[in-house]
Amino acid sequence: MVTRSFRIKAPQGLHARPCANLAAAARDFASDVSMCYNGEEYDASNPIALMSAGVSYDDEIIFKISGNDEEEAIEAIAIILENE
């Protein structure tokens, strides 16, 4: 299992577009991908679940990934979060 924390840099937080991009990336990998925020765990392959978390600017989120391609998955997620 790989875990990695990220600080949200986008002024609007995790809104529809980054949530959709994160979910699409999570679905591209065989690994199980989840996002943790404020003590709750969300299915990262579901954009509605990600948006429902209400992640704002400067919040910290943690991604947990478990599976054969977990390293590739965390890198893809990191790229999305750095570019949004």
From TrEMBL:
Cell compartments where the protein resides: Cytoplasm
Main location as per UniProt: cytoplasm
Domain (HPr) ranges: 1-84
Keyword Acetylation: no
One example of a Gene Ontology biological process annotation: phosphoenolpyruvate-dependent sugar phosphotransferase system
UniProt GO cellular component terms: cytoplasm
Keywords, alphabetical: Cytoplasm, Phosphotransferase system
NCBIfam families: PTS_HPr_family (TIGR01003)
PANTHER family: PHOSPHOCARRIER PROTEIN HPR, PHOSPHOCARRIER PROTEIN NPR
Name of the molecule in the record: HPr family phosphocarrier protein
Species in which this protein is naturally found: Candidatus Anaerostipes excrementavium
